[in-house]
Amino acid sequence: MYSNPYEHLSGTIKSSKLKKAGFQEFQFDTGEIKFNYVVGPDNGPPLVLIPAQMGMWESYQKVLVPLSNDFQVFALDIRGHGKSSWTPGEYSWRIIGEDMEAFLTGVVKRPAMIAGNSSGGIIALWCAANLPHLVSAAVLEDTPVFSVEMPRFKEEDRFVYNGLTKLVENIGNPSSRDLANYFNGMEMPVSETRTKRMPPQVVRYLSKKIRKFEKVHPGQPIETGFPSTLRLLLKSLSMFDPDFARAFVDGRFYEGIDHAEALKRVQCPLLVLHGDWQRYPEHGLIGAMDDRDAGRIKELVPDMKYRKIHANHVIHAFKPKLYIDAIMEFAAEIDVLPQPGK
Predict the structure, then answer these.
(1) Is-contact 49 55, C-beta < 8 A?
(2) HSE-up of 212 (CA within 13 Å, CB side)?
(3) Phi-psi category of 137—alpha, beta or left, where left has phi over 0 and alpha has psi -120 to 50?
(4) Ranges for the AB hydrolase-1 domain (predicted)?
(5) Is the peptide bond before 151 cis (omega within 30 degrees of 0)?
(6) Helix/strand/coil for 197
(7) How do the pLDDT tens digits run along the chain, 342 residues long?
(8) Per residue in 218-257, is it b (16+ CB within 10 Å) or e — as a string?
(9) Which phi and psi angles does 270 have, rounded to 5°?
(10) Cα separation of 102 and 109, whole Å?
(11) What is the rounded CA–CA span in Å between residue 312 and residue 122?
């Protein structure tokens, strides 16, 4: 058993841009965990942003201020991430869904649009299916609907499953881990015949940089590396409970949701944002879902809105303007935002 060494750092937003826009960072005690989040000024209806596995609220920094012009924006660290509580042995869709119920009831206190990226999108789907009184609309941002269900996740489209297995094997012990090992031997297929790998000398250099940072800044999240995407990934990894990933590998996590049944229960407006994907024989699906999955969602939720965006899996970070435009257009279509003259 271990606890999050960074919980006490809550309330330390570094971005002057976010501070100037009125964002603040807080922790909410649900009675079971401490939930870390940032919230912007009350400029409209609530919009709750849920990052991907291994992600933190900081992944949304490029979109927080623009969205806060029309919404009151909340961005979260879910349990096991960032400055929220780590609870090894207690991770599942149901458990995190119940965290969300406590947060929506105790902090947001009115029906909210819930937007989640990747696994955060599955959480948004859980909320839409199980908390209709608390969810005004849901946005699934490149979400692994169907593809993260067993046995498909492990046997057919196994690329992400294998990546989580590797993470657990390489940095699964928080007390004695070298985060650079996560990149050792990591493969990213770019075609049926070509795969990108981080060179071993780069991994060794990164390991040296991390050790140097830890020596100079003991007890602080890792903030080193270049470019900024790598820097944020290392910080997120340093603040991530590996048992969250282990629960996907050993099967504990899947309790609490059947994707098709959850979609059938969705009563609120639904937007699906679909990023780029490929499928290779050796790896399965590279991405969150394929066109067949998107079509199946449409069959189960005929009124859902769909937008294809040619972007990396984390659309809000790599194509922030397109993400903002999609959210704003969806909100206008479903009358979530007040209309001029009304």
Answers:
(1) no
(2) 8
(3) beta
(4) 45-207
(5) yes
(6) strand
(7) 467 888 888 887 888 999 999 999 999 999 999 999 999 999 999 999 999 999 999 999 999 999 999 999 999 999 999 999 999 999 999 999 999 999 999 999 999 999 999 999 999 999 999 999 999 999 999 999 999 999 999 999 999 999 999 999 999 988 888 999 999 888 888 887 888 888 999 999 999 999 999 999 998 999 998 889 999 999 999 999 999 999 999 999 999 999 999 999 999 999 999 999 999 988 899 999 999 999 999 999 999 999 999 999 999 999 999 999 999 999 999 988 866 554
(8) eeebbebbeeeeeebbbbbbbbbbbbbbbbbbeeebbebb
(9) -130, 130
(10) 10
(11) 18
The CATH number for 206's domain is 3.40.50.1820
pLDDT computed for residue 5 by the predictor: 83
Q: Are 226 and 71 in contact (CB under 8 A)?
A: no
User: What six digits make up the tokens of 16?
Assistant: 């002057």
Neighbouring C-alpha atoms within 13 Å toward the C-beta of 16: 0
The C-alpha atoms of residue 121 and residue 113 are separated, in whole angstroms, by: 12
329: domain range? 7-333
Could you identify the residue written with the tokens 């841009």?
A: 17
Is residue 1 situated within a structural domain? no
Judge whether 307 lies within some domain.
yes
Structure tokens at 159: 């690329």
Residue 1 is predicted with a pLDDT of 47
Residue (of 126, 74, 117) closest to 96 by Cα position: 126
Asked if 123 contacts 50 with a C-beta cutoff of 8 angstroms, the reply is: yes
- CB within 8 Å of 147: residues ≥ 6 apart: 153, 157, 160, 285, 288, 289, 290, 293
- Confirm whether 230 is domain-assigned: yes
E strand residue ranges, the chain: 24-29, 34-39, 46-50, 72-77, 112-117, 135-141, 187-189, 195-197, 270-274, 278-280, 284-286, 305-308
Query: Count of domains in the chain?
Result: 1
Quick check: is 338 in a domain? no
Are 317 and 275 contacting, i.e. CB atoms less than 8 angstroms apart?
A: no
What distance, in Å, lies between the first and last C-alpha atoms of the chain?
A: 54
